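Teaching note: in complex prediction, the entire set of molecules is handled at once rather than each chain in isolation. The prompt given to students was simply: 'Predict the structure of this complex.' The entities are:
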Amino acid sequence: MKIGIVGAGLGGLLAGALLSKENEVVIYEKLPIVGGRFTNIEYKGYNLTTGALHMIPHGADGYLAQLLKKAGCNVNIVNSNPDGLFRVNKKNHPYKNIFNLVGLKDKIKGLKMAANLKIGKVDKDISFGEFLEDIPLALDIGNSFTGWALSLNAYDTPMEEILEITKNYHKFGGPGIPIGGCKGVIDELICVIKNNNGKIITNHAVKKIEIDDKCYINPGENDGENEEEFDIVISNLSPKLTENISNVKIIKEKEPIPSKGIKVSIGCKEKFIEHNGVLFTPECERINGLNCPSNVDKNLAKKGYNLIMAHATQIKDNVKNEIDIVLNDIERLFSENNISNYEILHIQTYRDEIPVNHASNGTDLNPIVNDKLYLVGDGVKGKGGIEVEGVALSVLKVVSEINKIK
Ligand SMILES: Cc1cc2nc3c(=O)[nH]c(=O)nc-3n(C[C@H](O)[C@H](O)[C@H](O)COP(=O)(O)OP(=O)(O)OC[C@H]3O[C@@H](n4cnc5c(N)ncnc54)[C@H](O)[C@@H]3O)c2cc1C
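The expected output is the structure of the full assembly:
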């Protein structure tokens, strides 16, 4: 089959790598670079990123890692150990010790809640915030987790998603960092696609997708030079952007709600974070957590320095104020560790057409639009799919469906 893919983000490239083994694949990317929100940007000797924090939510064993292997990619993902620590009262605590920080009554309540969550014995129709709100510290911790992993407040996170995430966590474990960072993954995908004779065309914005008996990308373009016919089209754009440029109605009921975030990249000589997991910060006003990917791959930072990445869910619309709150959090955290000599390398906000997720968890659409048009990416994540794991789930579903047609 001849398959046209619109967009060379992680979703488009992963689908391309898996399908190019047995099909003719052409990928169109509007930018001069590929990888979308999952690749590196070199700056002052550091490898910053276009979006992600160089972290894969279920590490070397999750959905993404499995599909990368299946596609023939050789990516080395180093699992985090510990998965995460929680900074409470100026100290970093492992999850298992968290309930020692509350009174006996709340400790018993909290342990019961954690046990019920593990076995799925909870009301699926409430939010995670409602589930946690009886214990203030549990709510703060829940908010730091959903803020870091989903860019959502716990009250905006459906319990059903948390149950699926918990299942995935017990199945695959916590996060990991790929050697080479995000670009380590993207470079391998490009290599596989090219080895399979797939084509990646950059600087080529797709303006129109037409689905009829056949599928057309950019039909009627000037002299027809850019027009191409396919058996199937996969769009790596959001459902809304895909609908805007195609002749197919995609959003039939609820429109996906994007999630917004702020990322700050920090360079620092001192070891602010000693481990390769997440430092969750439930007591910060905005920052949900930080990581230090250069603890896994020192080439991600300038020689002799560390790259630290902080993420915050954007709560209010005034971006400037939100950034100020985030910077205050950073200043407080670093001064608590007696570090004054750090450099803010980059502050990025993610909203509108480039959000953290095109669909916040629980608002994703079905990736299969019809038997000719398919969607991949973070507007169509599978249930319980955290970020790129959700992107991988969308690709898994689409590729399995296309293979069935064959
Ligand atoms: C601040 C931040 C932190 C994050 N942290 C993490 C993390 O640590 N771990 C994690 O797992 N995930 C993280 N994520 C999420 C992750 O980055 C995304 O889920 C993932 O990269 C999305 O991939 P995608 O393929 O869906 O879309 P994209 O990366 O957006 O790819 C879409 C591609 O389509 C191209 N395109 C758009 N329009 C057209 C057109 N008309 N024609 C041709 N091409 C077009 C775009 O240029 C882009 O390259 C983070 C995201 C952000 C923003």
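Point out the following to students. The longest strand covers residues 342-350. The CA atoms of residues 234 and 374 lie 5 Å apart.
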